[in-house]
Amino acid sequence: MSQWTNSVTIQRWTPSSRYAIVFAGLVLVLLALAPLFASNGLLDRLTALFIYVILAAMWNALAGYGGLISVGQQAFFGLGAYFTIRIADLGLDPFISVALAALIVGVISYPISLVMLRLKGGEFAIGMWVVASILHLMVNLDGLIQGETGISLVSLNHYDSAQRLTIIYLLTLGSMAGLLALLFFVLRSKTGSAIQAIRDNEEAATSVGVKPEKTKQLLFVIAAFGIGVAGALWLTSATTFLPKTYFSVQWSAYMIFMVLVGGIGKFEGAILGAIIFFLVETWFSSTGVWYLVSLGAIAIAFSLFLPKGIWGELERRFNWHFLPVGYQVVEKNKINTDKK
Amino acid sequence: MTHAVSNGLLASDLVKNFGSVSVLKNINFSMNADEAVGIVGPNGAGKTTLLSALAGAFQLDQGSILLNNQDVTEKCASARCNLGVVRTHQIPKPFDGMTVFENVLVAASYGVDADKQTAYQHTLNAIQLSGMEHVANRQAESLGLLDRKRLELARALATQPKILLLDEIAGGLTEAESVQLVDTIKELRRQGIGIIWIEHIVHVLLQVAERLICMDSGEIIADGEPQAVLSNPQVVKAYLGGGIE
Question: Are the beta carbons of A213 and A234 closer than 8 angstroms?
Answer without folding.
Answer: no
